[in-house]
Specification:
The chain is of the alpha+beta class. It has a single domain, classed as Jann2411-like fold (Orthogonal Bundle), CATH 1.10.3300. The chain contains 6 helices and 6 strands, in the order H-E-E-H-H-H-E-E-H-E-E-H. The strands form 3 sheets. Strands 1-2 form a two-stranded antiparallel ribbon. The protein has a two-stranded antiparallel ribbon with strand order 3-4. Bound molecules: zinc ion (ZN). The site of zinc ion has 8 residues, from helix 6. This is CGNR zinc finger domain-containing protein. Pfam families: ABATE, zf-CGNR.
Length: about 170
């Protein structure tokens, strides 16, 4: 199993509360599910404090919604630093975080990096009625609206088409 990139991890964490058949589920609520999720994203490390990970996720969601201050991420960053590793080609900086909140720290740092490099690009899927997922917009035009084109993108396109036809038919 491989490690997820920090940005991929941030998105995966934000998306641990999907809406499945109209019901919001929390993939981190059950300890077994949470451990499986952590395992999937660390390649085996299961020392993560799941309660802190969930709290960090909720803070990150609130930050995306503009309903929290960055200081609320402090618990995830406790004891976190960058460590210099010198190699043949120069210095590499790697995030050093306590094992109990390594994932929470990486997600928080990834959110902050995006805040600088791509402000406003982490957002909720435009299909707010049925979907509770987030997306990170990497498009040039900054116009991505759906968590996935195959899922919500097509669904919303079909709905707009249907509504347009309905309107056209009901016109006198
Ligand atoms: Zn969606």
């Amino acid at each position: 199993m491989s490690q997820t990139s920090d940005e991929g991890l941030l998105l995966a964490l934000l998306n641990t509360t999907p809406t499945v058949e109209g019901v919001r589920v929390d993939r981190l609520a059950d300890p077994e599910d949470a451990r499986a999720w952590v395992r999937e994203h660390t390649g085996g490390d299961i020392q993560e404090d799941v309660a802190l990970l969930r709290a960090t996720r909720d803070t990150l969601k609130a930050l995306v919604d503009g309903e929290a201050e960055a200081t609320a991420l402090a618990p995830a960053l406790d004891g976190v630093s960058y460590r210099a590793a010198i190699g043949d080609t120069g210095i590499d900086w790697e995030l050093a975080a306590p094992a109990e909140h390594a994932l929470a720290a990486r997600a928080a740092v990834a959110w902050d990096a995006l805040r600088h490099s791509a402000p406003g690009r982490v957002r909720r899927c435009g299909n707010t009625e049925e979907c509770s997922l987030f997306l990170i917009d990497h498009s040039k035009s900054n116009s991505a609206r759906w968590c996935s084109m195959a899922g919500c993108g097509n669904r919303m396109k079909a709905r707009r088409h249907y509504e347009r036809r309905k309107r056209t038919r009901s016109e006198p």
